[in-house]
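Feature request disguised as a bug: please show the residue count (313) next to Iron-hydroxamate ABC transporter substrate-binding protein in the output. Example input:
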Amino acid sequence: MKKIILAAVAALAVVTLAACSHSSTSSDKSVKKDTVTFHALNGAVKIPAHPKRIAVQNYPDEVASLGGNVVGTDSWAFPNPYLSAKQKKNMIDLGAPQFNLEKLIAQKPDLIITVDKAQVADYKKIAPTVLVNYQELSNMKTSLNYFAKLLNRKADEKKFLTNFQKAADKEKKKLSAAGINPAKSTISLLELQGDKIYAYGDNFARGGQMLTTGLGFKESEKMTELSKGTGYAEVNAESLKNFDANYIFVDFKSVDKAQYQALQNNPVWQSLKAVKNGHVVTMDYNKVYFFAGPTATQKELPLYTNAILKVTK
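Example output, currently without the count:
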């Protein structure tokens, strides 16, 4: 009888141990599903598989375009006029160039994304932090793909790109109807700031991605060099002949309008093909200077198309 009781106890212990083991395994699997390891510029980072509250520097548009909940961004990206009220519902200005740590903590992020290597040590004390390389994410589709992987939102990426292509095709038809073939037309991007002139590649906002990735325009030779390099350069009036193209896009603040008027009187400027053909397109600085994310790029499509059609004779 004693042996039978001991055997029963032993069997019960094995069953209990197996149950505990199964419970532990299930729990481990649950944990693994809740977090993933993402290989970022700052190494392997364990992040939420599905982040719910994201603080992101420089790229709130990318995150919001994929349906992510952005709870904070930097002061430069925050004014983005192209994000909807819904996309900005929980978003606050966290300061610049670094995030204000008190504000950041108050937003309770479960993921922080930054381009500032010096701040990673502080940020990761608050939440898992991913450091990204701006130079590697200059193309709209490349950056969208990167964030789709980071946020586990590949389906949202596919949906966005489908809608983007439809919007781009609609604008291309308008240009085609006016006899404009972007694939055979070159562009250059210029900006006036005080007494300085800057030229840009297609990877430094100013409508660059919208014009190349969206509408399919070709970059001038010098613009291509900037796109492959630093993204921008200060230039002088005499060197503008190197940026001549079928279309030149110029943006400036209203306070710099006088500088643009002065530039129009410059002999070098007057000799440019785009100027002679009346193909200089002026854009509102506040709408194009910094905003180059996917949603901004899509919403800029009709803005630029209409501006191009306005100057085309």
